[in-house]
Amino acid sequence: MRRMISRLGFYVVALWASVTLNFIIPRLMPGSPIEAYLVKMQGQNVSLHTIDALRAQFGLSNAPIFVQYLQYLGNLLHGDLGISISNYPYSVWEVLSSHIPWTIGLVGISVVLSFAIGTLIGIVIAWRRGGALDSTVPPILTFISSIPYFWMALALLYFCGFLHSWFPISGGYDINNVDPGFSFDFLMSALHYGTLPAVTIILGSLSGWVLVMRNTMVTTLSEDYVLMAQAKGLSYRRVIMTYAARNAILPSITSFSISLAQVVGGSLLTEMVFNYPGIGYVFYNAVNNLDYSLVEGCFLIIALAVLAANLIADVVYNLLDPRVRQGEA
What we know:
By secondary structure, the chain is mostly helical. It folds into 2 domains: 2-77, no CATH class; 93-322, MetI-like fold, CATH 1.10.3720.10. It has 15 helices and no strands. Helix 1 runs antiparallel to helix 14, helix 5 crosses helix 8 and helix 7 (149-163) packs antiparallel against helix 8. The radius of gyration is 24 Å and the shape is globular. The model has no long low-confidence stretch (mean pLDDT 77). Pfam families: BPD_transp_1.
């Protein structure tokens, strides 16, 4: 309990540091949101009164930077993320809430599938090390993962989408024939549109899970407690899952927690190539439009996801590894 309390204190400090950097970094970018908005609206020659009115309308302040920082913290405590300039008059929270489900549905399912499939393949290869699977599967997966991420996405897009028209080449669902909602037609349309981006994410990350699990399992299988379990005549399934895999999977927990944080952050390149309506694509457009409020909102969501994922990893470590509990005691 004492360890978890100290870890929670660390996460509180890390959250404050993330919020502070979230406030500072967008303001280091050249230009200003008003200039970007005027160029977009082709209204460069305007009076100072118009510019002041726009700043007030968008919630921007001319106060000193420290005062702006205090105002920013106060707005966060009240759940106010500001107004998105590039999506005016919608608020940042309205923009994020409409795109987060797309990223969670695509990247979340892809990361979980990649982790589960890669871990299982790594367990099987390690148990049958030196065989045909151990000689062929890791090199093939390593070759696939060495392909640049955007090249793989473009190749799948060209071959499966443009050349053969098996899958759509952009978007999140069929906007012409399907209405958004929890209907069967919409879910099938979203699944159809998200297949290529999901396959890209899974193929790009699968080899990492396989190699880590395979190497860790090989080391774990040589431990005395695994040999004792085999000598006792326990079944292969029980030895693998209860004795070997449970301990071998511990190093992958941290990597999986970081991957879970990417679920909220989105996969920027994937969403850009496939024009997928997720958080990554929103963040890219916000940076191009100097939309401070939306950039800060995306950063904040990503920071919260990273901290929450690491906290979950600490809890899982505490449950799976008795050495952590013994050290705490």
